[in-house]
């Protein structure tokens, strides 16, 4: 059988540049995709969970509208969670936010 474990000597002699750059390149290429999947999961998960809660309350109380309220509440809650986790904000390719956060990069200031 093939042993997937590396010895500590093999790990220490491996180039840290190649391993580090491979990890960084992998993280940068699919960050938007992972954030999109997370937002989708929060929203769909919220709709499913709160719809099931609404369905249970509908059956308990003999109504038919609480399931719809639960679906809307779940969608709003999922979007809120994804926004609070910073998944819905736009980011530049370097990972910084688009908002101004300091002096301009060209050296001009707005002070008079």
Quick rundown:
With about 110 residues, the protein is mainly α. The chain has helices spanning about 10-15, 15-30, 30-60, 65-85.
How does this model look, in words?
With 112 residues, the chain is mostly helical. The chain has a domain at 33-88. The chain has four helices and no strands. Helix 3 packs antiparallel against helix 4 (66-84). The chain starts with 7 loop residues before the first helix and ends in a 28-residue tail after the last helix. Residues 88-101 have a biased composition (Polar residues). It comes from Arthrobacter cavernae. Residues 1-29, 88-112 are annotated as: Disordered. The chain crosses the membrane at residues 37-57, 63-81. Keywords: Membrane, Transmembrane, Transmembrane helix.
Distance between the amino and carboxyl termini? 74 Å
Largest sheet: none
Radius of gyration: 24 Å
Estimate percent helicity: 55-70%
Kindly estimate the percentage of residues that lie in beta strands according to DSSP.
Answer: under 5%
Order of helices and strands: HHHH
Mean pLDDT score: 75
Q: Which structural class is indicated by helix and strand composition?
A: mainly alpha
- Please provide the count of β strands: 0
Shape assignment: elongated
Uncertain stretches: 6-25
Total of DSSP H or I helical runs spanning 4+ residues: 4
List keywords for this structure.
about 60% helix, membrane, single chain, transmembrane helix
């Amino acid at each position: 059988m093939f042993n997937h474990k590396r010895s500590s000597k093999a790990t220490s002699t491996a180039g840290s540049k190649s391993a580090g750059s491979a990890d960084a390149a992998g993280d940068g290429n699919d960050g938007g995709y992972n954030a999109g999947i997370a937002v989708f999961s929060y929203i769909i998960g919220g709709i499913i969970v709160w719809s099931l809660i609404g369905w249970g309350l509908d059956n308990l109380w003999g109504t038919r509208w609480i399931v719809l309220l639960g679906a809307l509440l779940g969608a709003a809650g999922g979007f809120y969670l994804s926004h609070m986790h910073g998944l819905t904000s736009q980011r530049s390719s370097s990972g910084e936010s688009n908002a101004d956060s300091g002096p301009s990069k060209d050296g001009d200031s707005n002070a008079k």
